[in-house]
Amino acid sequence: MQFDVDGRSAYAYTGGRPFDAGRPVVAFVHGAQHDHSVWILQTRHLAHHGFSVLAFDLPGHGRSAGPVLPDVESMAGWVLHALGAAGVTQPAVLVGHSMGSLIALEAAGQAPQAVGGIAMVGTAFPMKVSDILLNAARDDEPAAFDMINQWSHARLVHRPGTPGPGFSVYVQNLRLMERQAPGVLLNDFTACNAYSRGLERAAGLHCPALLVLGERDAMTPPRAAAGLIGAMPGANVVRVAGSGHAIMTEAPDALRDALDGWLRSAAFERAAAAT
User: Fold this and answer.
1) 96-106 tens-digit pLDDT
2) 35 vs 23: CA distance, rounded Å
C-alpha cells in the first residue's frame, strides 16, 4: 500500500489483504537497515486471522521516500503520522524489532491515546552499538553487514545452516541489507546508540506490553532487556529457545504464536480495556 505521510511517499505491506481500518490494527516497525519484508510470515498470518496489518517501511528504507530520520523520537513521530495517514482512528498495537522496538516504545510515550499495546522483539535498553560495528557502518558497510549476519543468526554454526534446500536466512538478510541506500545503517545505529528515554517511557507505559527475546541473541542479549522488564512489571515476556536476534526468520512460528496468543489473551483484553 503506497500512501503519503507528511507530503512524502510511504509504503506499508498489508499482509496480502486490503487494509481495513475498521478491524483491529497491528502495525509493524522494522529494525536498522531493514524494511517491511522481515515481517512477511507474521503479518500474513494476522491479516488472514481477524486483524488489519501495516508493516511500514521507515523513511529512506525500502519503498518509502527519504530522507532517513536521525533519531528514534522522530521515527516514532513518523509512525504515529503514518497511522493517521492510513486512516487509523482507533488505538493500534505496535510491534517493533530491535530499533523498531524502541520506536514502538517511544511512540506509546508520545501518543498513549493512539497506541493500544506494544510488542518489543529482540529488544534491549540501552541499545548501545559496539564501536567496531559503528566504525564499520561508517567506513566499510560490507564488513558491517557480515558482522551483523554472524551476530544475528544463532544457527549459522549448523551446516548447511538453512531450513530447507534453496533457502538461506543468512543470504536473505544480506541481500535485504544491500538493498538499502548507503549511509542508512550508520544513521540507524547512531539513532539506537543515542536513544536515552527507554526506561522513562517504559515506566510510564499505559498499555499492554509483550517482550519476545531470543535466548541466543548476540546483538541484544536477553539480559540487556532486564531494565525494561523491571520498569514494566505487567509485561508478558517470552523467551525463544535456540533463536538469535533474527527471531522473525529463525523462529517464525514461535513469534507468530507469541503475538497471536498475546493479542487474543484475556489478560491483553482486560489491560487494554483499562487504559
Assistant:
1) 999 999 999 99
2) 24
